Amino acid sequence: MTKTADIGLIGLAVMGENLVLNMESKGYTVAVYNRTVEKVDNFINGRGAGKNFIGAHSIEELVASLESPRKVMMLVKAGQPVDDFIDQIIPHLEPGDILIDGGNSYFPDTIRRTQYVESKGFLYVGTGVSGGEIGALHGPSMMPGGSAQAWPFVKDIFQSIAAKVDNGVPCCDWVGSDGAGHFVKMVHNGIEYGDMQIIGEAYQIMKDLLGMSADEMHEVFTKWNTEELDSYLIEITADIMAYKDEDGSPMIDKILDKAGQKGTGKWTGSAALELGVPLTLIGESVFARFLSAQKDMRVAASKLISGPKPEFSGDKQAMLNDLKMALYGAKLISYAQGYNLLMEAAKEYDWQLDYGGIALMWRGGCIIRSAFLGDIKKAFDNNPALAHLLLDDFFKQKVELAQDGWRRVCAAALLNGIPAPSLTSALCYLDGFRSEWLPANLLQAQRDYFGAHTYERIDKPRGQFFHTNWTGEGGNTVSTAYNS
């Protein structure tokens, strides 16, 4: 077969199909393959008819259709399928050819795969692709990492299909070595989990405490999307509230309250635990999905365990203003925690992450795009050594502005028995972060009491450790393991 394709793609599911249509619309010829070969023919004769696509019925045929250096992109299920395809593709490659994983792979897998593929004489790119079906078709956010030598060969394709902001700046740039791209995408998805959860908590407060209809909520979310909360998720929430089922009733009221997930939020929480980062809001959002999945148990518990019945007698508009501030404050915390995780990962894995550049990549195309991502970029432009977003003047001022209303919302939720785990945990994080003193001294005393784990003293230099024989029965032997 004549080598005429600029890039090949394996996996014609929703993301893959729309992404290759995007590539073709930008002037590229794309070879496509799917394990179920019938999908290839259906695509070539359907949405791809009359366009610059080459349908391949085998991996060998796909690779043979590509210009050198060959660029083969996989958009398949994360996990073992990626490894299986790598091993199937490699025998058909030549030195310098490039394998690209565009799925939601776990970043340690991408670190391992980069090393493996490079050891065979090829190059590897693990790129996060965010934006869903519409983003893939019209311009996603892309976060590539892996073999740096591969970037010049995929840069034009990636940046041409990516979303654009600020008069044409692509929401795509090189992130870093091995698993950096997939790590940044994982954190993006964790923030997405958090954003969706806090919006859901606001929705429940509107519905159960304020007694608002879907149409009323549509008006509120629409208004909020023109103010501080201007973002993709607020925009689509307004659309969802307005959507009617065939009988004219709100579609939102017909949907079972049982959330699904693909694991990226859980991975984000696991990475935070490994790196010692207090990712509280995102962690609670993952647990909230787990709790929602226990639908049958919740139904049984609702009949057995009593609690306060939501009642509201105050100023409804004032509460909505407070709720907006609670959402805004929690959203600021979500991004601050996410960036804290990025910074700690960069130290651990020796990645040179461009934090302002990451904010720019998230400003268009992706699910968490929002107005204040530009303020994150400004924060790092002003201070590249910024240790934490909440220490930036803009973010410090905004969380202080949000606090009063945020506290009233959290108090109202707790007093009325409405679960708001992410809104409240974000506020507790803020209070902990701004506290010069926390009760960890008691915790250390307890650890020393039962395990001789030692402690530091405030009247002695840092780095000196002490043990007390609290009962008079213990000896002077102390634990050798101390984690500050």
Explain what you see.
This protein is of the alpha/beta class. The protein folds into three domains: 7-174, Rossmann fold (3-Layer(aba) Sandwich); 185-434, N-(1-d-carboxylethyl)-l-norvaline Dehydrogenase, domain 2; 438-483, Single alpha-helices involved in coiled-coils or other helix-helix interfaces (Up-down Bundle). 52% of the residues lie in helices and 8% in strands. The protein contains 19 helices and ten strands. The chain has helices spanning 14-25, 37-45, 59-64, 80-89, 107-119, 132-138, 151-161, 180-209, 214-224, 232-242, 264-275, 280-293, 295-302, 316-349, 355-361, 373-382, 393-415, 421-433, 440-451, and strands spanning 7-10, 30-33, 53-55, 71-74, 98-101, 123-130, 141-146, 164-165, 169-170, 176-177. The chain has an eight-stranded mixed beta sheet, with helices on both faces. Helix 1 links the parallel strand 1 (7-10) and strand 2 (30-33). Helix 14 crosses helix 17 and helix 17 packs across helix 18 (421-433). The longest helix is centred in the last third of the chain and has 34 residues, at 316-349. The radius of gyration is 25 Å and the shape is globular. The termini are far apart.
